Amino acid sequence: MLRQFSQRWTMGRVWLWQWVGMVGTALLGAPTVSAFQELYYVTDLGAQGAETARDINEFGVVVGTILGSHAYAYFDLDGDLVADAGELIDLGALPGQYDRSDAYGVSSTGQIAGWSRSDADVNHAIKWSGGLIDLGPDEVEDFDPHYATAINASGIAVGRWGSGPWPALWTSGGTRVDLWDPVGNTGGANDINDTSQVVGWRNYAGQSGRFAFLWKGGSTTNLGQLGGAVQWAEATAISSFGFIVGWSNTAGGETHAFLRVPHGANSSAGTMIDLGTLGGNYSAAYGVNDRGQVVGVARNQFDQDRAFVYTNGQMYDLNTLISPNATMEIPYAINNQGQIVGLGHMTGQNQTGLLLTPNDADGDGLFDVWESQGGGIDFNSDGTIDLDLYALGARPDHKDLFLEIDAMVDRAPAAAAINLVVAAFDAAPVNNPDGIQGIKLRAQVDETDIPRVPWNAMIDIDGDTVGDWPAGFDPTKAARFGTAAQRAHASSANILGAKRWAYRYCIFADTFAGSDWSGLAELPGNDFIVTLGGWTTPGGTPLQQAGTLMHELGHTLGLRHGGGDDINHKPNYYSVMNYTFQTPKGWFPGWRPVYSRSVLPTLNEDELNELAGLSGSAAVPVEIGPLPSQIVRMSGAVDFNRNGVATDGIALADLNRVRANHAASPGQILRGFNDWPALIYGVTGNGDFAEGEHSSAIGLEELTAAEHEASDATEFACDPCDVNCDGTVNGFDIDPFVELLTSAATPCESCAGDVNGDGTVDGFDIDALVECLIGA
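Given the sequence above, the corresponding structure tokens read:
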């Protein structure tokens, strides 16, 4: 059982000094600038007894060692990702006279991996999952040491064992699996992600060098090297999205940190990117997140080893971004919120675990100093503010999103479309430090005179020889990003550079790739397009513009077509990200652009409960399969298998196949998703931030005009008296009718609930519904 310290303590925030500017060269021809203002709160975990901090998950749980004794887990008690209060919990150790343990990895589900010394003085791999679990070795037969270094959400741990050592994987049940035949070969597994991809190093019998490897399902891939006659490399960490980091020798005989991008960008398809150094001859990377941000150690021009953070193509000395009262020596891990943990010390104190949290109080990816009065973005650190976000309305205690929109001639979005999306964000169920819910979307429609031409030419961004991104986008952005006044300013390079740190960018174009696809976006990222030129109303109606704008913007904020997955047309996912709800339909006159606000129950297409239905709102209709599709309410019983009754305890249906051209997908698990808590606000940390990089573009699979029109033409398949559309008019129709009635009188077209057929669900339908029930 876990042994817990009883003391709860409150840590004072260490308010930070303004960082010293650094000069570096940004990517892709951008000017030479300092480019990054980020301050961190410093939490001294040593004040609670932590000797070091080795890993952190997405919820701010930190693990490490207590002063050479036991493993610990540290929790941010209020869950706001601000290092203001927390509790360190002693995880214990295997029983015995040595009583020692250490924690190296923590998963998103809170499972922890590490090692502990046994009474026979042998190191055992262990994990904490509801208690301490011994992963071995079996000391009756094996006295070789075992170490677990990382663990994923499924409870699969990896590490090394034996005197070789040899890389190992422990299944969720605790069985050890050797990643390859250990005879004559050595190595170690350093990290595992939630798709069970493993990275580490290996040597081959009879060969010189060390090889960085990626292992998946029994197949091992040599990740290569940065140069040199003899390969010498190691992969130290992998993110959930597949970013890999480590170190490698170079052609010049130095050791440098590397980053391997998962999908392959224009310049780095599946290859190692040399992250460089801080001016010296050495660097090594130890942690990476899903935004491609990296932490590690690098040598500077004074031959000093310094902690670094790498973001947006630039390496920064981490200790110039934190209080002079703290020193980070070895940063081991960084999570998707940008929190960093590692080994360091406070002034005048011994070694300690440090937790660094970006000082973004409202969590919108715009740092407090940028959003404060008198502050702003000083892009080149010359003391002059290049972009005053406070003057543009931003505040450090309320979430802000900035968006610039340019458009081709006759393709500009209507003001009503922009207002609908702004209103949706303003009403978002998202908390802020100022106590007011919502997100301020500050959308600036700028130039609308871009020549209207189809973007038929495409560029290949993933190396498969298939065009993925319109070739016309990048030169257009280069010429049009920023206002005309900003581009003409004497300091335009700094002003536009600062604007790129805060703004997403959209072009309302005509068409691309000779198609009628509605748009395209990076996922996540800062660039996207809306292309409704091939729709029935060229350029789209205001409602179609609003839905598509919010859909493509959602991709840049990290949302997929199924919210957290790519399964489309899920009937239990009410969001503009779902093609079913991206655009207005005749069968849903109350349509508005929305992101999902709740997680509806999971649907197993092989075990559907018709009485439970979809468990959503009666005010929301939805299109469901199997073919031919039909419209039903999201509340009440549903005749999933179309046998005339909606009372089957178990029914089978391919619910999300609503078009004949969709591949059959029976037996899927369709999970609901709450969009708003999942948004990735920051622009600067995204892997596709650099100009011309679109490696995470979602692909040519967006909603088409033809699919929209087919859905728009679908009609309700139920009697208007059968409000819950379960095939029977009875008392179960009363509650959904009341829900419809009290949600507001809603215009309806062939809509269940409009019992008297006057086109509106209102009080005049009550008597008509009573007559239906009596007649039934």
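The radius of gyration is 28 Å. Try to locate this feature in the token string yourself.
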